[in-house]
Amino acid sequence: MSQANYDCPQCGGRLESLDVDAFECRKCGREIREVVVEGMDAFERVAEDDENPLQEVAQAALEGVRE
Question: Cα separation of 25 and 7, whole Å?
């Protein structure tokens, strides 16, 4: 499993490996897919760019998934 060294974009807590495909924040319980965590900087830049046609996709990816 990958070792996360990332902060949760929602609450600032630490993301930790949940399984081989996802990370979870201990503080708020948010689950984020591994591909999003590994590309977090790029997703954040695209999500903030009003001119980028992939803005909505990046914003949705940063939303994570909750069970």
Answer: 8
Tell me whether residue 40 is in a domain.
Answer: yes
For residue 64, what pLDDT band results from cuts at 50, 70 and 90? low
Are 42 and 61 a contacting pair, CB within 8 Å? no
- Structure confidence by residue, pLDDT tens digits, 21-30: 889 999 999 8
Strand segments, DSSP code E, in 1-67 are 15-19, 22-25, 31-33
Query: What's the total number of domains in the chain?
Result: 1
User: Which helix (DSSP H) or strand (DSSP E) does residue 33 occupy?
Assistant: strand 31-33
Q: Which amino acid is at 18?
A: L
